[in-house]
Design goal:
This protein has about 350 residues and is of the alpha/beta class. The chain is built from 16 helices and 10 strands.
Length: about 350
């Protein structure tokens, strides 16, 4: 009988099937290295930008968080923001994590750093030497608005050479296609149409910049909206907060544990991530339990009780949640945070 790869340890899955397949089979957990980024995409759920504080995870925390993430048996990556802005700091953490068997499986990047053939070849080989298996490279109108086509093309080409195609979670997009994405991203009308056809979750900058491009729908019609990573199309948001069902989980530079952007569900300094997962994130936090059991309708009711004037319609369940959370954040900053996600720049 064939063995289901999902039942195999993640390192074996990566070795046999590659990073791209392992992401889907084992799901992911990430070290959110920084909220700072080289660009400011309109669809960014974390509201990252070059104007965010010059902060990345410390060396000690980074190594410890990598160890905690590795205990989940998920496909582990370093994300952001743009972690390559802090290349030396990131490499130091990767080397130390590799020494304890906790190297990330891949790095997520927007390719803005990939300014030459030499830089691409050198950095990828250095990452490979620290135990990193592959890379995820973004390509869409939001990223390409800022990132020149040749940098993304170069980043992909060298990634395939160094890591192998199965370890590059990215599409092979031509320079002509990248230029077309760039033109869409720089045209307000075309990017608005693109967001309607391929809607992101309207949280963070997406909630501020793109939600208005989509038509509003009555509150009752939003209950069946899918969540960030799909999940059960129901009123509640259980699949985003249940340790067995959640598709992705993050630890940010401050030790905040998040799965749905901007809802802090634990502290990796207080106890290890796997202990939080085993206990259940909703057991000790009333606000997390509200989302787990009732979804954003509970946040809307709470906000209304505090004076929030809710609209009769929103374009998306996540958009409704985002508006309610923004209102509630001053009263509940420890759960609705950190500031980088909520504060405009």
């Amino acid at each position: 009988m064939a063995v289901d790869l999902r039942d195999r340890p993640v390192d074996e899955v990566v070795a046999e099937a590659g990073v791209g397949a392992a992401i889907g089979l084992k799901h992911v957990a990430s070290l959110l290295f920084t909220y700072r980024c080289t660009i400011a995409c309109q669809h960014c759920l974390f509201n990252c930008s070059p104007k965010r504080p010059d902060v990345c995870v410390s060396f000690e925390d980074g190594v410890e968080f990598m160890r905690q993430l590795r205990e989940t048996d998920r496909c582990i990556h370093i994300a952001g923001g743009e972690a390559m802005m802090y290349y030396d700091e990131m490499m130091a953490i990767c080397r130390a994590a590799n020494e304890i068997g906790a190297a990330p499986h891949f790095i997520e990047t927007n390719a803005s750093w990939c300014k030459s053939e030499e830089i691409a070849e050198t950095r990828y080989n250095e990452l490979l030497d620290t135990g990193v298996s592959g890379v995820l490279i973004s390509a869409d109108p939001y990223h390409q608005r800022f990132v020149p086509p040749e940098r993304r093309e170069r980043a992909y080409r060298w990634a395939v050479r160094v890591f192998g195609e199965k370890n590059v979670a990215a599409s092979n997009v031509s320079l002509e296609q990248l230029q077309e994405l760039r033109e869409i991203g720089r045209d307000p009308e075309r990017v608005a149409a693109y967001s309607r056809e391929h809607p992101p979750r309207f949280v963070g900058r997406a909630g501020e910049d793109l939600a208005s491009a989509s038509p509003d729908r009555p509150l009752a019609d939003l209950a069946d909206d899918p969540l960030w990573h799909g999940g059960n199309e129901t009123r509640h948001c259980r699949s985003e907060f249940d340790a067995d069902d959640m598709w992705e989980i993050h630890i940010d530079p401050y030790g905040n544990i998040q799965t749905c952007c901007g809802i802090v569900i634990g502290d990796a300094h207080e106890k290890p991530l796997v202990e939080w997962m085993e206990r259940g994130f909703h057991t000790d936090n009333d606000l997390v339990r509200m989302a787990y059991e009732e979804g954003p309708y509970a946040y809307l009711d709470l906000a209304r009780s505090r004076g929030f004037e809710a609209r009769e319609a929103y374009p998306q369940k996540c958009a409704m949640c985002w508006e309610a959370r923004k209102f509630l954040r001053p009263e509940y900053p420890e759960t609705f945070g950190p500031a980088e996600i909520y504060d405009p720049v």
